[in-house]
UniProtKB/TrEMBL annotation, chain B:
One of its GO terms (molecular function) is molybdate ion transmembrane transporter activity. The keyword Cell inner membrane applies. Part of the binding-protein-dependent transport system for molybdenum; probably responsible for the translocation of the substrate across the membrane. It comes from Microvirga flocculans. It is found in: Cell inner membrane; Cell membrane. Keywords: Cell inner membrane, Cell membrane, Membrane, Molybdenum, Transmembrane, Transmembrane helix, Transport. Belongs to the binding-protein-dependent transport system permease family. CysTW subfamily. InterPro entries: MetI-like, MetI-like_sf, ModB_ABC. This is Molybdenum transport system permease. Residues 12-213 form the ABC transmembrane type-1 domain. It holds the Pfam family BPD_transp_1. It is a multi-pass membrane protein. GO terms for cellular component: plasma membrane. Its main location: membrane.
Amino acid sequence: MILDVDIRHEQGAFSLQTRFRSDGKLTALFGPSGSGKTTLVNAIGGLVRPDHGRIVVKERVLVDTKADVFVPKHRRRIGYVFQEARLFPHLNVRQNLLFGRFFTPRRERRASFDHVVGLLGIGHLLARRPSTLSGGERQRVAIGRALLADPQLLLMDEPLASLDEARKAEIYPYIERLRDEGGVPIVLVSHSVAEIARLATSIVVLSEGRVAASGPAAEILRHTSLFAQTGLAEAGALIEAKVLRHEDAFGLTVLQAGAGLLTVPRLERPAGTRLRVRLRARDIILSLRKPEGLSALNVLPGVISSIEDAEGASMDVQLDCGGDRLVARVTRKSVAELGLTPGLPIHAIIKSIAFDPEAVADTRPGTM
Amino acid sequence: MEGLSPEEWTAVRLSLKVASVAMAASLAPGIAIAFLLERGRFWGRQALDVLVHLPLVLPPVVVGWFLLIGFGRRGPIGAFLAEHFGIVFSFRWTGAALACAIMGFPLLVRAIRLSIAAVDRKLEDAAGTLGANPTWVFAVVTLPLIVPGIIAGMVLSFAKAMGEFGATITFVSNIPGETQTIPTAIYAYTQVPGGEGGALRLTLVSIAISILALWLSEWLARRARRRIHG
């Protein structure tokens, strides 16, 4: 058995209680935001210490709270590819790639540098700094860096979530090759049905911290009801915006919408171009106060116009932001805890990377 | 206007020596304390924080007096160090360096602490998953990322030491050739008739050193930032 997990963990009001085993070459942890996927991989990777339970990877006990076993992350030999790459900014690509190898005992170094570099197509990037790479290149380097530490298991926490469709399409083949070469078993966190349909050999469906289903991919994917239950319908708003300026230093483009300024990854469109931008409901976070110290670039003030039931535990909050209508999908719990109600002023937070250029289409004034 | 007299050169050289030693000696403890204060969760952290910051708010003369009591020949620490290690602070240039180091310490710690707070902990987690134990993570991830803050702290500490007056003169007096630094020499000049020329010369030297130090630190910090951010 590659992976045997049985843990309970409380984090604030959230409780994770999961139990599953998997022998798949690529196990997908699937579920909506807030279902506990990241907490679960963090527990496997050693970034979170579960309150109770056991985690066994390839017959090696990493966590057993009864026996007081907790292997620290640097001794687990588990690679982790994070959502935001997390490359070391003070090192170039080659140094980043070799970082983990330095800490791998010499006799256990099996992964060949040239092979990994070739597999991921990053040979031409070796002398570059992470800040000069595109999102897709960064993730490929992050995957390479994890592989070159010769991990027993590779965790990938939505490694493609911050990329647009074109970049995703660029990386899928590499993950497929990785899976099919069979060197390192992979655990992939995803909330995209298309993604897991393409990549997974086994699937664990999580819902509100519990395992809703687990098993071979083909079997799980037939039960579409499972996916409906997890509330993954792609609700979203379409708004009109104009290209205001480009911030070349950061590779960003600033758009002017009715709701305010939106910062998005650089779009190759001249200033003044009118665009349609789709903002998915699940990419919008609500905050009662204007947030500070947040990495998300887009914060739009607005007013709640109505709140509607959505599937399961979630609700769709309709917002009026300077005339633009946005929709945010939040949990029923958040609605209650934040006291959300129509007429309440609110701040909508949108991660710039949540913008999907595929959903951006040129438009003439008045066509919306 | 003529050049510096030999006595004035001595004061300049001594000032540079005292400031450099004060800065260098407080660097390692400064990084350690900044780390403890920013990351540590231990009993007495608040008290340590207050203690480190005291020289910033106390009158320098008070700090000097404490040093005199503690590190003087007959002080408990001073007597111990003199007896066992042969290190004497009172009325020596080493005492001036100690006074300057203590007065500059809160500035050094604050600058480094701010840069530690700005380090993305997620990068440290990533280094951990790649097999680096906490010591290695500090050495190869955290430390390189806080270099700009360390440089800023060093410059502040150096500048403070170059200008330190109250604690120095209280603790080690104003002995030409031994403890007379630029500020105490300027003060001595202003106390004697016809000392204006000397005071002016040393003032100009002091300004020149300050500007040079500031420029050097800017240059170093720019280089460090470029190294970090590509």
